[in-house]
Design a protein that fits this description.
The protein contains 1 helix and 9 strands; from the N terminus they run βββββαββββ. It has 160 residues and is mainly beta.
Length: 160
């Protein structure tokens, strides 16, 4: 079985990411980093799916580990989620971004994210050049708008 959906982009997923159909959520695919000592692990479980031409959706499941002392999702966890969504969602939206870094990320927090309720990030690939990928999206939780964001990835950087 292929490790990417039939409608997936032509670019490969990073070799350290497990990208398989999720059994508990039909239509969603895992975006798992197996190395628990990496920062990416702090977000917990991450799922992704293509959502039309140039678009994708990512999902996280916020719990106490992603909370602040106000018992809502920590802003840093939301920013980390958005950053990861630019890569996972950007990939499913069709961008060639395997060896990229975040060049900029702007976010506006609009309402608190609740614990125990899935948090989704929409990803829209606005434009892709040889060296850059421009994206924007929203972070939503059920009917609530939690944040809006835009960001740019710098492509073509090989790992050391």
């Amino acid at each position: 079985m292929s490790s990417a959906p039939a409608s997936a982009p032509r670019y490969p997923v990073h070799p350290r990411i497990r990208h398989l159909p999720d059994r508990e959520h039909p239509g969603w695919w895992t975006w798992e980093i197996e190395e628990e000592d990496r920062f990416n692990w702090s977000i917990g479980r991450l799922l992704v799916r293509a959502d039309g031409e140039g678009k994708a959706r990512c999902r996280m499941f916020p719990g106490v580990r992603q909370s602040n002392l106000g018992e809502v999702v920590h802003g840093g966890a939301i920013l980390t989620f958005i950053d990861m969504a630019m890569f996972a969602g950007g990939h499913l939206a069709g961008a060639d971004i395997m060896h990229s870094v975040t060049l900029d990320l702007s976010a506006q927090f609009l309402s608190p994210g609740r614990l125990g309720v899935p948090l989704d990030a929409t990803v829209e690939l606005l434009r892709e050049t040889k060296r850059l990928a421009f994206m924007r999206g929203l972070v939503v939780q059920q009917e609530a708008l939690v944040a809006s964001w835009s960001g740019t990835l710098r492509k073509g950087l090989q790992p050391r």
